[in-house]
Amino acid sequence: MNPRAKVEKFLDNASRSRLMVYACVLGLIGLALMSWSLFDQGWIPVMAAMSVGQGIGTLSFALFLVIVIIDLRKAEFRPSIPSQPMKPIKSEDD
Amino acid sequence: MHVSPLSWIALTCAIVAAVIMVYYLIYRPPLNGRVKALMMLAVGVLPIMTAMIGNLEGLAATEHQAFCGSCHTMDMHIADANDPDSLSLAAIHSRTIKFGDKSCYVCHKDYGMFGYAMTKLGGMGHVYMFLSEFAWYDMEEALPKIHIARPFKNDNCMQCHSTTGRIWNGVADHNGLLEDLRTGTTSCASAGCHGYAHPFSKPDEETPSDVEAHSALEAPSPEGT
User: Fold this and answer.
1) Where a domain ends, among B61, B76, B100?
2) Which of B17, B39, B57 sits opposite A31 (nearest CB)?
3) So what's the ipTM on this one?
4) A16, A67, B21, B121: least CB-packed within 10 angstroms?
5) Does residue B133 lie in a domain region?
6) Per the CB < 8 Å rule, is A49 touching B54?
């Protein structure tokens, strides 16, 4: 199976709510690391916040975007209704 | 511990985001449009705000002595710089308001267009060296091994001491070595001149005598230097 087919299969079968749970858990870990550096400005918290914390936060947001993509793939887009052709104006002579 | 107003804004964003995420984890509402908009706020907008403010505050924190001193191998350097009785260059400069709490950064940073980025890259090198080697040493083992990565540039001294002032040029040694000092051939912080900035970390024979140290202390005021 080629990579594209794998991704499509994943997007077809993935559970949105489970992805959202992972996104929330990762988001909470990332936020904890980023918040730690606001109060303790030693090298460990600052480096952790600006590397690991932001990396985990980005992964969390990426999972949310995957959910959006899944929804967009399943969404049914109705075609726009074509406008009615204008009726010819009858002259009073007719 | 000082927490700036920006940090409080970042913390507020983090708390609001965390509350929304915990709410989702507990109640698991169906992911309709409204919930997704809320989650966009919780995992996207608010954490990005926290991260951006965290970057600003984090980068600002790297300029303070507390950050440099958070590695145990810098304990003696920080203690000496803050010692009111010390006559080292680091201590003399740290006592002035222009250096103060940021004395490590003001002296050791690179100046110029890419100075900030180069300083941060250098700092990453320090983190690597600390994690790979110095973290495992106690102070006695570490002190003889600590050395500056490359010779200290006179350009850094010349950010304040322009070498054009009347009083500075009135010193015979300055006048005689003017070109060498400006080009960096002779270091201001060498044993024969003002001595090492952190003399306690050098062998005795390399450090200036008390007389030299006192003459450095009695150097003219920055005006005219």
Assistant:
1) B61
2) B17
3) 0.81
4) B121
5) yes
6) yes
